[in-house]
């Protein structure tokens, strides 16, 4: 093994998601048999055999679970298709048009894509020293652009998860458990 | 949190894989060797991204293996410093909180990096954050956001028997400090995180 280039590119979660999905589709189309151990894990049939629970595609379904578990923005990707290959350049363009005093760095844009912050408090996790660099008005503008281009999680669901002691309690309990 | 890393390696295709198309056999071989493995200073390999180049297959003397030199790119889990990612609380101790994602388990948030006003409740074995009369709990299995502040690498190369005994003895001496991890186990790749800041901590708090 030789490492030729330790960091060839950065990937967003969406790209990893799409790559995994494409591969799964390819395998199905070519009627390719996934190794027995991986197949078992993919279908979540539990018959633990320490000899067959090795390596190979084992991580892929786990990564898929991680990427599609709330609060990941890809949780509803299958139904809502919020993320598309065109959405990424459009987000960059709209942020440029938003007429911000400073540019966002590559890492910050990547974090925005991966986290899809829905409020300025969450936006501050993606942008370094946000308070000093952008005014409140500008922060809100960024949040609006994100919601416009990448969509937002269902407000009904957000309520159910957010207010544990509010009226949404009945919904909240199962949704929290699902997230676990 | 994912990157692409370019590798070069020698792939050996065994004769029982000859029924596969060669690119499929190469892919399977690479995934079997790399997926779910940590490469030191690179990160946790997830799966093959693409095959860049492959040489002619050569059969050596003595066995039927086809040897192919390949260059390929792997998807690697390696969050950059200051990146914020989501994980789940798996365990807590007076030293801090242990987190895991579905595919990566070795994330630790030391108590110094919890929000100011956090206290450990020994009775319930969990951390609480007390602010303005509000008590918020870090429950196990809760999804949290944390910021990556450091990473630690521990090479897993086996040590010689003599050295291993000495190391084990040394580790046993400092065992109380790093419970509940077994005394001489160090994860190959550990991420140190922080939950001190706006937007960080349990996801529910910020909805």
TrEMBL record, chain A:
Pfam families: RNA_pol_Rpb4. Residues 156-170 have a biased composition (Acidic residues). Keywords: DNA-directed RNA polymerase, Nucleus, Transcription. SUPFAM superfamilies: HRDC-like. Residues 152-180 are annotated as: Disordered. It comes from the Eukaryota. It is found in: Nucleus. The keyword Transcription applies. The keyword Transcription applies. InterPro entries: HRDC-like_sf, Rpb4/RPC9, Rpb4/RPC9_sf, RPC9. Coiled coil: none annotated. Belongs to the eukaryotic RPC9 RNA polymerase subunit family. This is DNA-directed RNA polymerase III subunit RPC9. It comes from Humicola insolens.
UniProtKB/TrEMBL annotation, chain B:
It is found in: Nucleus. Residues 9-64 form the RNA polymerase Rpb7-like N-terminal domain. It comes from the Eukaryota. Its main location: nucleus. InterPro entries: NA-bd_OB-fold (IPR012340), RNA_pol_III_Rbc25 (IPR013238), RNA_pol_Rpb7-like_N_sf (IPR036898), Rpb7-like (IPR045113), Rpb7-like_N (IPR005576). Residues 83-206 form the RNA polymerase III subunit Rpc25 domain. Keywords: DNA-directed RNA polymerase, Nucleus, Transcription. CDD domains: RNAP_III_Rpc25_N. The keyword Transmembrane helix does not apply. SUPFAM superfamilies: N-terminal, heterodimerisation domain of RBP7 (RpoE), Nucleic acid-binding proteins. The keyword Secreted does not apply. Pfam families: RNA_pol_Rbc25, SHS2_Rpb7-N. Belongs to the eukaryotic RPB7/RPC8 RNA polymerase subunit family. DNA-dependent RNA polymerase which catalyzes the transcription of DNA into RNA using the four ribonucleoside triphosphates as substrates. This is DNA-directed RNA polymerase subunit. It comes from Humicola insolens (Soft-rot fungus). The lineage of its organism: Eukaryota, Fungi, Dikarya, Ascomycota, Pezizomycotina.
């Amino acid at each position: 093994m030789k490492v030729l280039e330790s960091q060839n590119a950065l990937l967003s979660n969406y790209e990893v998601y799409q790559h995994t999905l494409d591969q799964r589709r390819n395998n199905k189309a070519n009627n390719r048999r996934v190794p027995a151990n991986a197949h078992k894990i993919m279908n979540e049939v539990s018959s633990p055999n320490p000899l067959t629970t090795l390596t190979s595609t084992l991580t892929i379904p786990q990564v898929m679970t991680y990427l599609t578990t709330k609060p990941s923005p890809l949780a509803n990707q299958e139904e809502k298709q919020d993320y598309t290959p065109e959405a990424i350049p459009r987000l960059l363009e709209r942020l440029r048009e938003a007429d911000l005093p400073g540019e966002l760095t590559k890492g910050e844009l990547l974090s925005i894509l991966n986290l899809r912050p829905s409020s300025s408090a969450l936006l501050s996790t993606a942008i370094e020293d946000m308070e000093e660099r952008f005014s409140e008005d500008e922060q809100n503008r960024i949040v609006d652009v994100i919601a416009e281009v990448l969509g937002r999680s269902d407000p009904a669901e957000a309520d159910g998860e957010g207010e544990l002691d509010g009226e949404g309690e009945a919904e909240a309990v199962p949704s929290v458990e699902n997230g676990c | 949190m994912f990157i692409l890393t370019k590798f070069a390696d020698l792939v050996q295709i065994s004769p029982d894989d000859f029924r596969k198309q060669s690119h499929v056999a190469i892919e399977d071989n690479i995934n079997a060797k790399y997926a779910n493995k940590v490469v030191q200073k690179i990160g946790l390999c997830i799966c093959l991204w693409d095959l860049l180049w492959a040489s002619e297959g050569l059969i050596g003397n003595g066995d039927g293996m086809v040897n192919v030199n390949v260059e390929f790119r792997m998807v690697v889990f390696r969050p950059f410093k200051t990146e914020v990612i989501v994980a789940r609380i798996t365990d807590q101790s007076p030293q801090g909180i242990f987190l895991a994602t579905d595919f990566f388990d070795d994330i630790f948030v030391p108590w110094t990096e919890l929000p100011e006003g956090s206290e450990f409740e020994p009775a319930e074995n969990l951390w609480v954050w007390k602010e303005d009369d509000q008590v918020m709990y870090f429950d196990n299995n809760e999804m949290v956001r944390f910021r990556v502040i450091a990473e630690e690498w521990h090479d897993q190369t086996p040590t010689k028997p003599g050295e291993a005994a000495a190391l084990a003895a040394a580790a046993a001496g400092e065992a109380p400090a790093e419970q509940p991890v077994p005394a001489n186990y160090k994860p190959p790749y550990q991420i140190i995180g922080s939950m001190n800041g706006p937007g960080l901590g349990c996801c529910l708090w910020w909805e």
